[in-house]
C-alpha cells in the first residue's frame, strides 16, 4: 500500500520547519502534536482499508472450505506450553534424534532390535551395538543437565545371539510356508491322479 498523502505532506512540512529557524518552540510542539494526530488518522485509514478488503474477500467466498474449517482448534483447552510449535513440528515432520540424549537414547533403545534385524552381517550388528553402548556411556558422563540417562547398555554377545535366533526364526518361517503349500499341492495332485 502507498503512504497516505496527508502523512507525507505532514512529514515534509515537519522536515521543512526543522530545517528552518528554531526560535518558536511552542509552534513546533503544536505541529508535532498535529503530525502525531495525522499519523493516527493514517493508521485508522489503513485499518479501515484492511477491514474492507477482508469483508470483500469473505463475500467472494475466498475463506470458504479452508482446511480445518468447522473443526476445533487443536490443543485448545490444554495447559500453556511455550514450545508447542516445536513439539508440533517434530510430530508432523516425524523428526528423530532431537532433544536431550536421555530421551533420544530411550527411544532408540526401544527400536534397537528392529533396527538390528535389518542388518545382514554379524559384524554390522556388533558395530551398531558398540556404537549404541558408547553413546549411552557418553550421555551418562555429560554434565549438561536435563533428565538423567537411565537407558541400560546392551550386552553385545547376548544381543548377537538373540539377533541370530530371530534371524533363524524368520528364515524357518519363510521356508515353512512354501513347503506346506507345496506338499498340499502334491497331495491334491496325487488324489486327482487316482492315488490315495
Overall mean confidence score, pLDDT: 78
In terms of DSSP E residues, the strand content is under 5%
Q: What structural class should be given to the helix and strand makeup? A: mainly alpha
Rg computed from alpha carbons, rounded to a whole number of angstroms = 37 Å
End-to-end Cα distance, whole Å, is 93 Å
How many DSSP helices?
A: 6
The largest pleated sheet is described as: none
What's the shape?
elongated
What is the N-to-C order of secondary-structure elements (H for helix, E for strand)?
HHHHHH
Poorly predicted tracts of residues: none
Q: What is the strand tally?
A: 0
How does this model look, in words?
It is a single chain. By secondary structure, this protein is mainly α. Among the domains are: 5-60; 97-177. The chain has six helices and no strands. The protein starts with a helix and ends with a helix. The mean pLDDT is 78.
Produce the secondary structure layout.
Layout: H1 5-19, H2 25-60, H3 84-93, H4 101-117, H5 122-141, H6 156-192
Short summary:
The protein is mainly α. 69% of the residues lie in helices and 0% in strands. Among the domains are: 5-60; 97-177.
What labels describe this entry?
196 residues; mainly alpha; 6 helices; 69% helix
Amino acid at each position: 500500500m502507498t503512504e497516505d498523502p496527508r502523512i507525507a505532506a505532514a512529514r515534509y512540512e515537519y522536515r521543512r520547519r526543522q530545517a528552518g529557524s528554531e526560535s518558536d518552540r511552542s509552534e513546533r510542539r503544536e505541529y508535532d502534536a498535529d503530525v502525531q494526530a495525522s499519523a493516527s488518522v493514517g493508521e485508522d485509514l489503513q485499518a479501515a482499508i484492511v477491514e474492507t478488503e477482508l469483508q470483500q474477500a469473505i463475500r467472494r467466498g475466498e475463506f470458504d472450505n479452508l482446511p480445518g474449517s468447522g473443526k476445533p482448534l487443536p490443543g485448545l483447552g490444554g495447559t500453556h506450553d511455550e514450545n508447542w510449535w516445536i513439539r508440533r513440528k517434530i510430530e508432523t515432520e516425524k523428526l528423530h534424534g532431537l532433544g536431550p540424549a536421555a530421551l533420544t537414547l530411550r527411544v532408540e533403545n526401544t527400536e534397537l532390535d528392529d533396527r538390528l534385524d535389518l542388518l545382514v552381517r554379524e559384524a554390522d550388528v556388533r558395530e551398531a551395538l558398540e556404537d549404541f553402548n558408547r553413546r549411552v556411556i557418553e550421555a551418562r558422563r555429560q554434565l549438561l543437565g536435563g533428565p538423567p540417562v537411565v537407558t541400560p547398555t546392551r550386552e553385545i554377545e547376548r544381543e548377537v545371539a538373540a539377533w541370530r535366533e530371530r534371524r533363524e526364526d524368520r528364515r524357518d518361517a519363510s521356508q515353512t510356508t512354501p513347503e506346506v503349500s507345496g506338499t498340499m499341492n502334491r497331495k491334491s495332485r496325487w488324489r486327482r491322479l487316482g492315488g490315495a
